[in-house]
Protein backbone atom coordinates (compact mmCIF):
# COMPACT_ATOMS: atom_id res chain seq x y z
CA UNK A 1 0.00 0.00 0.00
CA UNK A 2 1.32 3.44 -0.93
CA UNK A 3 2.14 5.55 2.10
CA UNK A 4 0.68 9.04 2.24
CA UNK A 5 3.02 11.99 2.75
CA UNK A 6 2.84 13.78 6.10
CA UNK A 7 3.95 17.35 6.80
CA UNK A 8 4.27 19.69 9.78
CA UNK A 9 2.02 22.74 9.43
CA UNK A 10 1.87 24.24 12.93
CA UNK A 11 4.09 24.64 16.00
CA UNK A 12 3.53 25.70 19.60
CA UNK A 13 5.59 25.57 22.77
CA UNK A 14 5.69 26.61 26.40
CA UNK A 15 9.20 26.45 27.92
CA UNK A 16 11.39 28.11 30.51
CA UNK A 17 13.38 29.66 27.66
CA UNK A 18 10.35 31.16 25.95
CA UNK A 19 6.58 30.77 25.71
CA UNK A 20 6.35 31.15 21.93
CA UNK A 21 8.20 29.26 19.21
CA UNK A 22 9.91 32.36 17.82
CA UNK A 23 10.91 33.64 21.26
CA UNK A 24 12.15 30.22 22.29
CA UNK A 25 14.15 29.49 19.14
CA UNK A 26 15.68 32.97 19.04
CA UNK A 27 16.82 32.70 22.68
CA UNK A 28 18.20 29.23 21.97
CA UNK A 29 20.28 30.43 19.04
CA UNK A 30 21.49 33.44 21.02
CA UNK A 31 23.02 31.02 23.51
CA UNK A 32 20.72 31.99 26.37
CA UNK A 33 19.74 29.63 29.19
CA UNK A 34 16.32 29.01 30.69
CA UNK A 35 17.74 27.47 33.85
CA UNK A 36 17.28 29.37 37.11
CA UNK A 37 16.66 29.05 40.84
CA UNK A 38 13.36 27.35 41.63
CA UNK A 39 10.81 29.76 43.13
CA UNK A 40 7.58 27.75 43.26
CA UNK A 41 8.55 25.80 46.40
CA UNK A 42 11.24 25.83 49.07
CA UNK A 43 14.30 23.84 47.99
CA UNK A 44 16.46 24.57 51.07
CA UNK A 45 16.49 20.92 52.15
CA UNK A 46 17.27 19.66 48.63
CA UNK A 47 20.74 19.10 47.19
CA UNK A 48 19.53 20.82 43.97
CA UNK A 49 17.97 24.31 44.02
CA UNK A 50 17.47 25.02 40.30
CA UNK A 51 15.71 23.84 37.17
CA UNK A 52 14.00 24.86 33.96
CA UNK A 53 11.06 26.48 35.75
CA UNK A 54 8.45 28.46 33.80
CA UNK A 55 7.99 31.61 35.86
CA UNK A 56 4.63 33.36 36.18
CA UNK A 57 2.86 31.14 33.64
CA UNK A 58 -0.68 32.39 33.02
CA UNK A 59 -2.94 29.80 31.35
CA UNK A 60 -5.70 32.42 31.09
CA UNK A 61 -3.87 33.82 28.05
CA UNK A 62 -4.96 30.69 26.20
CA UNK A 63 -7.68 28.90 28.18
CA UNK A 64 -10.97 29.95 29.77
CA UNK A 65 -10.30 30.58 33.46
CA UNK A 66 -12.86 28.04 34.71
CA UNK A 67 -11.62 25.38 32.32
CA UNK A 68 -8.01 25.93 33.33
CA UNK A 69 -8.88 25.39 37.00
CA UNK A 70 -9.99 21.88 36.09
CA UNK A 71 -6.57 21.05 34.65
CA UNK A 72 -3.24 20.13 36.21
CA UNK A 73 -0.30 22.28 35.17
CA UNK A 74 0.87 19.69 32.61
CA UNK A 75 -2.50 19.88 30.80
CA UNK A 76 -2.47 23.68 30.94
CA UNK A 77 0.91 23.66 29.21
CA UNK A 78 -0.32 21.25 26.54
CA UNK A 79 -3.56 23.08 25.74
CA UNK A 80 -1.73 26.43 25.64
CA UNK A 81 0.89 25.08 23.23
CA UNK A 82 -1.87 23.46 21.15
CA UNK A 83 -3.67 26.80 20.87
CA UNK A 84 -0.45 28.29 19.50
CA UNK A 85 0.08 25.42 17.06
CA UNK A 86 -3.48 25.46 15.71
CA UNK A 87 -3.37 29.24 15.24
CA UNK A 88 -0.01 28.87 13.50
CA UNK A 89 -1.42 26.22 11.15
CA UNK A 90 -4.41 28.29 10.11
CA UNK A 91 -6.71 25.30 10.57
CA UNK A 92 -10.43 25.83 11.12
CA UNK A 93 -11.71 22.60 12.64
CA UNK A 94 -15.32 23.61 12.04
CA UNK A 95 -14.60 22.94 8.37
CA UNK A 96 -12.94 19.55 8.98
CA UNK A 97 -14.39 16.08 9.43
CA UNK A 98 -13.97 15.60 13.21
CA UNK A 99 -13.47 11.86 12.76
CA UNK A 100 -10.46 12.50 10.51
CA UNK A 101 -8.64 14.56 13.15
CA UNK A 102 -7.23 13.44 16.48
CA UNK A 103 -4.86 14.12 19.36
CA UNK A 104 -1.96 11.97 20.55
CA UNK A 105 -0.12 13.80 23.33
CA UNK A 106 2.53 12.27 25.58
CA UNK A 107 3.68 12.73 29.14
CA UNK A 108 6.20 10.82 31.19
CA UNK A 109 4.77 11.67 34.62
CA UNK A 110 1.28 13.19 34.22
CA UNK A 111 -0.47 15.17 36.94
CA UNK A 112 2.05 14.81 39.74
CA UNK A 113 1.32 18.33 41.05
CA UNK A 114 -2.32 17.37 41.54
CA UNK A 115 -1.37 14.14 43.31
CA UNK A 116 0.89 16.02 45.73
CA UNK A 117 -1.67 18.69 46.52
CA UNK A 118 -4.57 16.30 47.04
CA UNK A 119 -2.45 13.94 49.14
CA UNK A 120 -1.72 16.80 51.53
CA UNK A 121 -5.46 17.47 51.82
CA UNK A 122 -6.03 13.77 52.53
CA UNK A 123 -3.44 13.80 55.33
CA UNK A 124 -4.38 17.14 56.89
CA UNK A 125 -8.17 17.08 56.49
CA UNK A 126 -10.26 14.08 55.44
CA UNK A 127 -10.73 11.70 52.48
CA UNK A 128 -13.91 13.38 51.29
CA UNK A 129 -12.28 16.81 51.26
CA UNK A 130 -10.31 15.80 48.16
CA UNK A 131 -11.43 17.59 45.00
CA UNK A 132 -13.90 15.80 42.70
CA UNK A 133 -11.66 16.98 39.84
CA UNK A 134 -8.65 15.03 41.14
CA UNK A 135 -8.87 12.16 38.67
CA UNK A 136 -9.57 14.31 35.58
CA UNK A 137 -6.62 16.49 36.53
CA UNK A 138 -4.04 13.82 37.34
CA UNK A 139 -4.72 11.20 34.64
CA UNK A 140 -1.94 11.06 32.05
CA UNK A 141 -4.38 11.19 29.12
CA UNK A 142 -5.93 14.46 30.36
CA UNK A 143 -3.77 16.61 28.08
CA UNK A 144 -4.78 14.74 24.93
CA UNK A 145 -8.42 14.68 26.06
CA UNK A 146 -8.55 18.38 26.86
CA UNK A 147 -7.08 19.26 23.47
CA UNK A 148 -9.68 17.11 21.71
CA UNK A 149 -12.44 18.83 23.69
CA UNK A 150 -11.13 22.28 22.75
CA UNK A 151 -11.47 21.51 19.04
CA UNK A 152 -14.20 18.86 18.94
CA UNK A 153 -11.81 16.20 17.61
CA UNK A 154 -13.36 12.72 17.39
CA UNK A 155 -10.57 10.76 15.75
CA UNK A 156 -7.79 8.81 17.53
CA UNK A 157 -7.11 10.24 20.97
CA UNK A 158 -4.71 8.78 23.50
CA UNK A 159 -1.60 9.31 25.59
CA UNK A 160 1.82 7.72 25.28
CA UNK A 161 3.87 7.33 28.47
CA UNK A 162 7.37 5.99 27.89
CA UNK A 163 9.48 8.23 30.12
CA UNK A 164 11.76 10.56 28.16
CA UNK A 165 10.96 8.88 24.83
CA UNK A 166 7.24 9.66 25.23
CA UNK A 167 6.99 12.59 22.80
CA UNK A 168 8.86 10.88 19.99
CA UNK A 169 6.64 7.83 20.38
CA UNK A 170 3.51 10.00 20.32
CA UNK A 171 4.61 11.95 17.25
CA UNK A 172 5.69 8.75 15.53
CA UNK A 173 2.29 7.15 16.13
CA UNK A 174 0.51 10.28 14.88
CA UNK A 175 2.72 10.20 11.78
CA UNK A 176 1.86 6.54 11.12
CA UNK A 177 -1.84 7.25 11.68
CA UNK A 178 -1.94 9.82 8.89
CA UNK A 179 0.47 7.92 6.68
CA UNK A 180 -1.77 4.83 6.72
CA UNK A 181 -4.88 6.82 5.80
CA UNK A 182 -6.76 6.65 9.08
CA UNK A 183 -6.56 10.41 9.73
CA UNK A 184 -5.81 13.64 7.89
CA UNK A 185 -4.79 15.87 10.82
CA UNK A 186 -3.20 15.06 14.18
CA UNK A 187 -2.39 17.37 17.07
CA UNK A 188 0.59 15.73 18.73
CA UNK A 189 3.57 16.27 21.01
CA UNK A 190 4.28 16.11 24.71
CA UNK A 191 3.92 17.93 27.99
CA UNK A 192 5.42 17.73 31.48
CA UNK A 193 5.14 19.58 34.79
CA UNK A 194 7.20 17.42 37.12
CA UNK A 195 9.27 20.22 38.64
CA UNK A 196 7.49 19.69 41.97
CA UNK A 197 8.66 18.76 45.48
CA UNK A 198 8.32 15.01 44.88
CA UNK A 199 9.48 15.24 41.27
CA UNK A 200 12.69 17.05 42.19
CA UNK A 201 13.30 14.89 45.27
CA UNK A 202 12.92 11.70 43.24
CA UNK A 203 15.55 12.63 40.70
CA UNK A 204 17.81 13.93 43.47
CA UNK A 205 17.50 10.56 45.20
CA UNK A 206 18.37 8.83 41.93
CA UNK A 207 21.50 11.03 41.73
CA UNK A 208 20.63 11.97 38.16
CA UNK A 209 20.83 15.75 38.49
CA UNK A 210 23.60 18.30 38.20
CA UNK A 211 24.59 19.85 41.54
CA UNK A 212 25.90 23.18 40.24
CA UNK A 213 23.84 25.37 42.57
CA UNK A 214 26.46 28.12 42.37
CA UNK A 215 25.99 28.49 38.60
CA UNK A 216 22.65 27.08 37.35
CA UNK A 217 22.92 28.42 33.80
CA UNK A 218 26.15 26.44 33.35
CA UNK A 219 24.80 23.25 34.92
CA UNK A 220 23.56 21.44 31.81
CA UNK A 221 26.74 20.41 29.98
CA UNK A 222 26.05 17.63 27.44
CA UNK A 223 29.15 15.97 25.99
CA UNK A 224 31.41 18.09 28.21
CA UNK A 225 34.04 16.27 30.26
CA UNK A 226 32.89 18.15 33.39
CA UNK A 227 29.19 17.27 33.13
CA UNK A 228 27.61 16.01 36.33
CA UNK A 229 23.99 15.24 35.48
CA UNK A 230 20.90 16.65 33.80
CA UNK A 231 18.73 19.63 34.74
CA UNK A 232 15.05 18.96 35.40
CA UNK A 233 12.68 21.22 33.47
CA UNK A 234 9.02 21.61 32.59
CA UNK A 235 7.10 22.61 29.47
CA UNK A 236 5.25 21.43 26.39
CA UNK A 237 5.72 21.15 22.65
CA UNK A 238 2.83 20.60 20.25
CA UNK A 239 2.93 20.08 16.48
CA UNK A 240 0.24 19.87 13.82
CA UNK A 241 0.81 16.94 11.46
CA UNK A 242 -1.21 16.93 8.28
CA UNK A 243 -1.54 14.83 5.14
CA UNK A 244 0.42 16.61 2.41
CA UNK A 245 -2.36 16.96 -0.19
CA UNK A 246 -4.79 18.15 2.49
CA UNK A 247 -2.31 20.82 3.59
CA UNK A 248 -1.50 21.81 0.02
CA UNK A 249 -5.17 22.12 -0.92
CA UNK A 250 -5.85 24.66 1.82
CA UNK A 251 -2.65 26.60 1.12
CA UNK A 252 -1.04 25.81 4.45
CA UNK A 253 2.51 26.81 5.33
CA UNK A 254 4.73 23.73 5.56
CA UNK A 255 7.69 23.65 7.93
CA UNK A 256 9.00 20.21 6.99
CA UNK A 257 8.00 16.72 5.94
CA UNK A 258 7.90 13.76 8.31
CA UNK A 259 10.15 11.17 6.69
CA UNK A 260 10.95 8.41 9.14
CA UNK A 261 10.21 6.99 12.56
CA UNK A 262 11.47 3.97 14.48
CA UNK A 263 11.44 2.67 18.03
CA UNK A 264 13.46 0.01 19.82
CA UNK A 265 14.26 -1.02 23.37
CA UNK A 266 17.57 -1.87 25.02
CA UNK A 267 16.13 -4.78 27.00
CA UNK A 268 19.01 -4.17 29.38
CA UNK A 269 18.35 -2.06 32.50
CA UNK A 270 15.50 0.03 33.89
CA UNK A 271 17.55 3.25 33.94
CA UNK A 272 20.96 2.70 32.30
CA UNK A 273 21.39 2.48 28.51
CA UNK A 274 23.36 -0.23 26.78
CA UNK A 275 26.97 0.98 27.18
CA UNK A 276 27.68 0.82 23.45
CA UNK A 277 24.38 2.47 22.50
CA UNK A 278 23.38 -0.52 20.37
CA UNK A 279 19.64 -0.14 21.02
CA UNK A 280 19.71 3.57 20.20
CA UNK A 281 21.75 2.86 17.09
CA UNK A 282 19.14 0.40 15.83
CA UNK A 283 16.37 2.99 16.30
CA UNK A 284 18.39 5.45 14.22
CA UNK A 285 19.19 2.82 11.61
CA UNK A 286 15.56 1.74 11.30
CA UNK A 287 14.38 5.36 11.11
CA UNK A 288 16.78 5.99 8.21
CA UNK A 289 15.42 2.89 6.48
CA UNK A 290 11.84 4.09 7.06
CA UNK A 291 12.79 7.48 5.60
CA UNK A 292 14.57 5.82 2.67
CA UNK A 293 17.63 7.96 3.36
CA UNK A 294 21.33 7.12 3.46
CA UNK A 295 23.31 8.33 6.50
CA UNK A 296 25.04 11.05 4.49
CA UNK A 297 21.68 12.77 3.93
CA UNK A 298 21.41 13.75 7.61
CA UNK A 299 22.70 17.29 8.08
CA UNK A 300 21.79 17.82 11.73
CA UNK A 301 21.08 15.63 14.75
CA UNK A 302 19.27 17.01 17.77
CA UNK A 303 20.73 14.65 20.34
CA UNK A 304 18.98 13.34 23.42
CA UNK A 305 22.14 14.63 25.12
CA UNK A 306 21.11 14.75 28.76
CA UNK A 307 24.49 15.62 30.28
CA UNK A 308 24.70 12.37 32.23
CA UNK A 309 27.87 10.32 31.95
CA UNK A 310 26.29 7.14 30.58
CA UNK A 311 23.81 8.69 28.13
CA UNK A 312 26.24 10.97 26.35
CA UNK A 313 28.82 8.25 25.80
CA UNK A 314 26.25 5.70 24.61
CA UNK A 315 24.46 8.13 22.29
CA UNK A 316 27.58 9.52 20.67
CA UNK A 317 28.76 5.95 20.11
CA UNK A 318 25.42 5.16 18.46
CA UNK A 319 25.59 8.22 16.21
CA UNK A 320 29.10 7.30 15.06
CA UNK A 321 28.14 3.69 14.36
CA UNK A 322 25.09 4.67 12.29
CA UNK A 323 26.45 7.68 10.39
CA UNK A 324 29.89 6.15 9.89
CA UNK A 325 32.34 8.40 8.02
CA UNK A 326 29.62 11.05 7.78
CA UNK A 327 29.45 11.40 11.60
CA UNK A 328 32.34 13.85 11.77
CA UNK A 329 30.66 16.05 9.12
CA UNK A 330 27.22 16.09 10.76
CA UNK A 331 26.28 18.84 13.19
CA UNK A 332 25.05 17.37 16.49
CA UNK A 333 23.80 19.57 19.30
CA UNK A 334 22.02 19.01 22.58
CA UNK A 335 19.62 21.87 23.19
CA UNK A 336 18.92 20.52 26.68
CA UNK A 337 22.02 22.51 27.57
CA UNK A 338 19.78 25.59 27.30
CA UNK A 339 16.22 24.48 28.05
CA UNK A 340 16.85 21.59 30.43
CA UNK A 341 15.31 18.14 30.33
CA UNK A 342 11.53 18.27 30.05
CA UNK A 343 11.22 14.47 30.31
CA UNK A 344 8.13 13.43 28.32
CA UNK A 345 7.93 16.82 26.58
CA UNK A 346 11.55 16.98 25.44
CA UNK A 347 11.19 15.10 22.16
CA UNK A 348 8.36 17.33 20.96
CA UNK A 349 10.18 20.55 21.82
CA UNK A 350 13.30 19.21 20.12
CA UNK A 351 11.41 18.25 16.94
CA UNK A 352 10.03 21.80 16.89
CA UNK A 353 13.66 22.95 17.01
CA UNK A 354 14.46 20.67 14.05
CA UNK A 355 11.56 22.16 12.07
CA UNK A 356 12.83 25.66 12.83
CA UNK A 357 16.37 24.66 11.85
CA UNK A 358 15.10 23.59 8.43
CA UNK A 359 12.98 26.71 8.03
CA UNK A 360 15.60 29.24 9.18
CA UNK A 361 18.88 27.53 8.14
CA UNK A 362 20.23 28.13 11.63
CA UNK A 363 21.56 25.39 13.92
CA UNK A 364 21.40 26.03 17.69
CA UNK A 365 24.47 25.37 19.82
CA UNK A 366 25.30 23.09 22.69
CA UNK A 367 25.92 25.81 25.25
CA UNK A 368 28.33 25.20 28.16
CA UNK A 369 30.37 22.79 26.01
CA UNK A 370 33.86 24.00 26.82
CA UNK A 371 35.85 20.77 26.82
CA UNK A 372 34.51 17.87 24.76
CA UNK A 373 34.75 14.52 26.51
CA UNK A 374 36.95 12.45 24.18
CA UNK A 375 34.90 9.38 25.09
CA UNK A 376 32.03 11.06 23.21
CA UNK A 377 34.11 11.48 20.07
CA UNK A 378 36.89 14.00 19.70
CA UNK A 379 36.16 14.42 15.97
CA UNK A 380 32.42 15.02 16.29
CA UNK A 381 30.89 18.44 15.68
CA UNK A 382 28.74 19.19 18.74
CA UNK A 383 28.22 22.84 17.66
CA UNK A 384 29.80 24.24 20.83
CA UNK A 385 28.72 27.56 22.32
CA UNK A 386 27.56 29.40 19.19
CA UNK A 387 24.76 28.86 16.65
CA UNK A 388 25.75 28.26 13.06
CA UNK A 389 24.12 29.23 9.79
CA UNK A 390 23.72 26.41 7.28
CA UNK A 391 21.05 25.17 4.89
CA UNK A 392 19.66 21.94 6.29
CA UNK A 393 17.96 19.28 4.20
CA UNK A 394 17.19 16.57 6.74
CA UNK A 395 17.39 16.29 10.53
CA UNK A 396 17.29 13.46 13.02
CA UNK A 397 15.90 13.81 16.55
CA UNK A 398 16.69 11.24 19.25
CA UNK A 399 14.84 10.55 22.48
CA UNK A 400 15.70 7.80 24.95
CA UNK A 401 13.91 6.96 28.19
CA UNK A 402 14.15 4.96 31.40
CA UNK A 403 12.92 1.47 30.62
CA UNK A 404 15.37 1.24 27.71
CA UNK A 405 13.06 3.07 25.30
CA UNK A 406 14.62 4.49 22.13
CA UNK A 407 12.70 6.56 19.56
CA UNK A 408 14.03 8.40 16.55
CA UNK A 409 12.30 10.84 14.19
CA UNK A 410 13.56 12.14 10.85
CA UNK A 411 12.15 15.19 9.08
CA UNK A 412 13.24 16.96 5.90
CA UNK A 413 12.76 20.00 3.73
CA UNK A 414 9.83 19.80 1.31
What is this entry, summarized?
By secondary structure, the chain is of the alpha/beta class. The chain contains 13 helices and 14 strands.
Could you explain the architecture of this structure?
It is built from 13 helices and 14 strands. The protein folds into two domains: 244 residues, Peroxisomal Thiolase, Chain A, domain 1; 152 residues, Thiolase/Chalcone synthase (Peroxisomal Thiolase, Chain A, domain 1, 3-Layer(aba) Sandwich), CATH 3.40.47. The two termini are 22 Å apart. The longest helix is centred in the first third of the chain and has 17 residues. It is of the alpha/beta class and 414 residues long. Helix 3 packs across helix 6, helix 7 packs across helix 13 and helix 10 packs across helix 11. The radius of gyration is 20 Å and the shape is globular.
Amino acid sequence: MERRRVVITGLGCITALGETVDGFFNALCEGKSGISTIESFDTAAYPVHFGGEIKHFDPAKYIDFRESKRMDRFSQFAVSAAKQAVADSGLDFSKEDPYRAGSIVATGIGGIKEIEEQHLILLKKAPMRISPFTVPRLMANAAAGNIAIQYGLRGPNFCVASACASSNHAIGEAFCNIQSGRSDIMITGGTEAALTPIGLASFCAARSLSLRNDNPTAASRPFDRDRDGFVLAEGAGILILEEYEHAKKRGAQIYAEMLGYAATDDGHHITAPLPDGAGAAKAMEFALKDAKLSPDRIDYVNAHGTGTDLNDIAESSAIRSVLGEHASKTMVSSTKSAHGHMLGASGAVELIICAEVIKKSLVPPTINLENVDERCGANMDFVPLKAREKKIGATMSNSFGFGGHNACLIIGKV
